[in-house]
Amino acid sequence: MQIDLRSDTVTKPSPDMRKAMANADVGDYVYGDDPTVNALEEKAADLFGKEDAIFVSSGTQGNLISVLSQAGRGDEILLGDICHIFSSEAGGVSVLGGVVMYPLKTNTDGTIDEEKITEAVKPDDYHKPNTKLFAFENSHGGISGMPINKESSDKMALAAKKSGLRVHVDGARIFNASIALGTSVKDLTEHVDSVTFCLSKGLSCPVGSIIVGDNNQIAEARRIRKLLGSAMRQVGVLASCGIVALDSMIERLAEDHDNAKKLAVGLSEISKIVINPDNIHTNLVKFRVPQNKGFEVSEKLKDLGILINGSYTELRMVSHYGIDSKDIDKTIESMSAVMNSISA
Ligand SMILES: Cc1ncc(COP(=O)(O)O)c(C=O)c1O
Questions:
Q1: 75 Cβ below 6 A of ligand 1
Q2: What's the whole-model pTM score?
Q3: Class of domain 9-248
Q4: 246 CA distance to ligand 1 centroid (A)?
């Protein structure tokens, strides 16, 4: 059996999800007739204390629709320089929506200084784009899944709002942040306008993400989702898994965090690996190996049945539903053997 640590997106639906899919009551979602997706959207909106929610196909689409429903052609979004929207979504908000992305320096804890946000808002000047939106990521995938606490989230959101901006959170893994911090997602996102979160990562659903926000924004999001060709039909089959996830898979994320911590501690004891386990709070474990040895390390691990992600020097392992403590032991053991065989 392979140990697949590439991402929490490799998770497979739980037995309860498979049952829920088989029994899901469905209808044509575009006509508003799918009771299961309607129930999921209502549950998600309640959980976040927002007015409405919309089911979308992926996290990338959730962010794209969130941005396009709050900023138009020639408008500007301020966002972190290593966030997923800026670095890993094919420039979609600019390509498809004509929205200008203005990256701000991200601190090592995943936050962005309030002054940087305020100073980046453009004056009313026809040479400039109109700054409309600020976005940040929680947990921050670029920084080993760093959770951003309520105090820091509120500071960023309120600074942006004071400048008249709307605020979006890429909360692909916001439940990981919530569990790690012991703060509800409702509290964590109290001052933001919209949040995208993924069902198909640590929550283990096969497909789907959700955007929560206010009634006007979600109405606009429905129009944009249609424009993008993603108004789905008997989607209750997928949404049924989302209901199982929100009811029973959130608390379980703590196990992934424990496994990630154990992994980080084990890796830190292997020579030629650089990682500080104190920086691992959720399920993403990033570490460095000697320069340009990353591909060799991952290939050798693959030969031992362990799949990981990474490139030249920085590598990533992700704990998730389907990885247990014994898998972590085997990974640490294999990693030790691989690092011994690497010349550096
Ligand atoms: C922080 C973050 N945002 C958004 C996404 C996009 O999600 P998806 O792969 O469902 O498009 C990811 C995916 O890994 C992510 O890590």
A1: no
A2: 0.97
A3: alpha beta
A4: 18
